């Protein structure tokens, strides 16, 4: 197995329905075929679509851990609370899904009301510590990048902003770029746009210029992806000559991330 020279953390973000989850699954397929170290896949989207897309079934989410900590902390004294904090790594391991080829964390859907910022900070640091044991980390983010910064990690090597060719999708992509660059929400080494479900590449490339982002890939509309979604089949099983996968493979092979 080839060991990467550096860790890589790639996050897919963009408008809801733009194809972030499918892209993350295709990134996973690529890195499984091109072994470059230990792979961790994080589903940071509350809709929790990624597990089925990569063929796993979570029994516990990171939010389940969060809720468990909150319940125990409410009934605990000072010493017990310190013990809970020390056991965080162990609790997070309960939420870690391990397959033969990669590991996965599912953030889950918050159900409790109220502010639990200290608990979220604790979880973020715990996940950051766990991520240190992996060489490649892929994140399927919520619409936008705030959740990535708030709950998972503050530094992302490559934020991939995903959009279709709709006006709303491109506007969202532009807004995400502006927020990242102006507010310094996350640190990154490279940022770029991935256009999804493209029918006319020339038209798509012209539209991409509106966002001010480097266009890294045009993923064509792919009937096999739609068929797999309809059948509930994991996208990791897509054939290697699937047009969508070929576009993702070429993007990764042609860039230094």
Short description:
Helix content is 46%, strand content 16%. The chain has 257 residues and is α/β, with parallel strands linked by helices.
Please describe what this structure looks like:
The chain is α/β, with parallel strands linked by helices and 257 residues long. It has a single domain (8-254), classed as 3-Layer(aba) Sandwich (Rossmann fold), CATH 3.40.50. It is 46% helix and 16% strand. The protein has 11 helices and 8 strands. It has helices spanning 20-33, 50-54, 62-74, 78-86, 88-95, 117-131, 146-152, 167-183, 201-208, 223-231, 243-254, and strands at residues 8-14, 39-43, 97-98, 103-106, 136-140, 158-163, 192-198, 215-220. The protein has an 8-stranded mixed sheet, sandwiched between helices. α8 (167-183) links the parallel β6 and β7. 39% of the residues are buried. The mean pLDDT is 84.
Give, in spatial order, the strands making up the sheet with the most strands. Answer: 3-4-2-5-1-6-7-8
What is the CATH superfamily? Answer: P-loop containing nucleotide triphosphate hydrolases
Topology as a string of helices (H) and strands (E): EHEHHHHEEHEHEHEHEHH
Give the % helix. Answer: 40-55%
Count of beta strands:
8
Count of the domains: 1
Amino- and carboxy-terminal Cα gap: 18 Å
- Average of pLDDT: 84
The number of distinct helices, counting runs of at least 4 residues, comes to 11
Q: Which outline best applies?
A: globular
CATH class (first level) name? Alpha Beta
Poorly predicted runs are none
Question: Compute the gyration radius: what is it?
Answer: 19 Å
Secondary structural class: alpha/beta
CATH fold naming: Rossmann fold
Q: What is the level-2 CATH architecture name?
A: 3-Layer(aba) Sandwich
Instruction: Please report which band the strand proportion falls in: under 5%, 5-15%, 15-25%, 25-35%, 35-45% or over 45%.
Output: 15-25%
**Main beta-sheet strand count, sense and barrel state:** 8 strands, mixed
GO molecular function: ATP binding; ATP hydrolysis activity
Protein name: Carbon monoxide dehydrogenase maturation protein
Pfam families: CbiA
Organism: Abyssobacteria bacterium (strain SURF_5)
């Amino acid at each position: 197995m080839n060991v990467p020279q550096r860790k890589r953390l790639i996050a897919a973000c963009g408008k809801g329905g733009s194809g972030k989850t499918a892209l993350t699954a295709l990134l996973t397929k690529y890195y499984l075929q091109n072994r470059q170290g230990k792979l961790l896949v994080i589903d940071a989207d509350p809709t929790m679509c990624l597990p089925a897309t990569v063929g796993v079934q979570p029994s516990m989410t990171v939010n389940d851990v969060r809720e468990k900590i909150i319940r125990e902390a409410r009934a605990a004294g000072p010493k017990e609370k310190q013990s809970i904090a020390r056991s965080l790594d162990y609790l997070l391991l309960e939420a870690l899904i391990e397959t033969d080829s990669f590991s996965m964390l599912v953030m889950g859907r918050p159900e409790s009301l109220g502010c639990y910022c200290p608990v979220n900070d604790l979880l973020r640091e715990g996940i950051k510590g766990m991520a240190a044991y992996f060489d490649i980390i892929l994140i399927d983010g919520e619409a936008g990048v705030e959740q990535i910064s708030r709950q998972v990690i503050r530094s992302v090597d490559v934020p991939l902003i995903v959009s279709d060719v709709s006006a709303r999708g491109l506007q969202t992509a532009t807004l995400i770029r502006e927020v990242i660059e102006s507010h310094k929400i996350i640190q990154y080494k490279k940022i770029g746009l991935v256009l999804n479900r493209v029918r006319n590449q020339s038209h798509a490339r012209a539209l991409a210029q509106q966002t001010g982002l480097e266009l890294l890939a045009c993923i064509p509309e792919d009937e096999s992806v739609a068929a797999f979604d309809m059948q509930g089949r994991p996208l990791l099983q897509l054939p290697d000559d699937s047009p969508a996968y070929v576009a993702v493979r070429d993007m990764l092979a042609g860039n230094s991330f």
